[in-house]
Amino acid sequence: xxxxxxxxGAAASFAIASSVAAxxxxxxxxxxxxxxxxxxxxxxLSGGTKDVESASLIVEPLARYDQNGEMVPFLxxxxxxxxxxxxxxxxxxxxxxxxxxxxxxxxxxxxxADVKFTADYCMHPEGGCAQLTKxxxxxxxxxxxxxxxKVTFENPMPFPYGPFVGGESPxxxxxxxxxxxxxxxxxxxxxxxxxxGTGPFVVTDFRPNDVIQMVANDNYRDPxxxxxxxxxxxxxxxxxxxxxxxxETGEFDYAWNLQLAPDVIARxxxxxxxxxxxxxxxxxxxIMLNQTNPSPDLDANTRSTAAAPHPFLKDPxxxxxxxxxxxxxxxxxxxxxxxxxxxxxxxPAPAAFNSEALSCxxxxxxxxxxxxxxxxxxxxxxxxVRETPDGMPLKLLYQxxxxxxxxxxxxxxxxxxxxxGIDAELRNLSASVFFGGDPGSPDTYQKFYADVxxxxxxxxxxxxxxxxxxxxxxxxxxxxxQWQGENxxxxxxxAYDELYAKLATTAGIEARAEIGRKLNDMAVTGGAMIxxxxxxxxxxxANSLGGVVLNVWDSELWNVADWYRxx
Length: 567
Known about the structure:
By secondary structure, the chain is of the alpha+beta class. The chain has helices at 2-6, 49-55, 112-123, 174-177, 189-193, 239-247, 262-269, 316-324, 328-335, 365-374, 404-418, 431-434, 465-469, 494-504, 509-525; strands at 29-34, 63-65, 71-73, 93-97, 138-145, 148-153, 201-207, 211-216, 230-235, 254-255, 274-289, 340-342, 395-401, 423-429, 452-457, 529-542, 545-546, 564-565.
């Protein structure tokens, strides 16, 4: 049952013992449904999980994280370390050896030149690369020969596995993308919708925000894989329909991110067609607090910079009162059950990085009201909404993606905030658009044309260095970055940036975890976000689909080459 599967822990997985197909393409078609539809297949131009994971079927990194959070080589011969000579003794460089015989899906050789090009592509100052934090501290990337790549850092880098590791940092083909550098990157539609890759599948048709058709890669490095001749990747709809399509009707083989109430999952499982799988990684549902003024009366440049600070969300009295008013245990109960935990932290996992310095598991409406009273926020006209000392009403636009659980959360939080004199207008947007990263859309989570917005995301691997780097000042999305960047709140604290720089040069898990916890606390207490729920990743697969191993530390589709049909 669902509960038993979930309680297996962070490395929860499900696999059925059966003989794997011995011939590529012998198992027909496999169908995957993501109710958040992919908008692009270039993960460097989108921070959306849906886009990163769909692209992981096609483009691959040098190494990935397995279901236990351990690094495993994919396109490399081995994981470089100091012990094997791959990482220099002074920690200023890492050298990767590419596995021999790997080809792109077009039949050309995969070489170190492609790896170097990928770094140049993401690090281009006008490119707006969504994964730029993976290359923090990199001074150069060199192709020493066709099979060897050396990454050199500006300073010693105790954790040198940011570039080219995990689903968020794959390799793209130089020959295909070399005319798509810098500001031209978003304009290369054919390339971004149909990347040539080294992965098990090749795109034959991509319809943004709808469906992707793929076939097995004839040049994939394992001649017996993938077992499936074709793959259908359907996007859109909602989590309920996706869950039913696997567990009740059997229309699809795999459904991702079933953000549904636990009783709904239990009823679906009774359909007998599929099995839910779950595990806890670092996924956190949170409310991001806009540090800049989202008023449409301002131009795009002004409303996305510190030149126009938010009129009241930068005040600790306001955002701390907003957090106090929230009943997190109730949110967990109605939204996730055993697939959720109350959290006050941005980084709840791995355990070493989970701060115990913050407390937020008890709702305190009276305390929140007292806090706002003391700070001078009064309801002077009796309409139930407080005003700032200079007369601006505490009214918020609160946006999120369209999803039943998130709309339930919005309704509850709106009510709680009304009890402390803060009025929230609710808005929900199609997940395909909200997480799409289209620089021309006003409705992406990166543009953040609202006061607060709610969503969840996570990071690859078990070291959150690059993820923590998303909150440094210069990672804020703005027009000159093509609206890419993961400092969504546009929060900026020079002390945070200084401590993050220290993390990048600190060795030893205990010392790194101590700094990581401090960075977590600075971002939360400083008003970048209000964490709500530490979410388990919950998906489902057909009972006839073998080889599935849920991975909470990388793309859920990380081992799709090993999937097969149970005969």
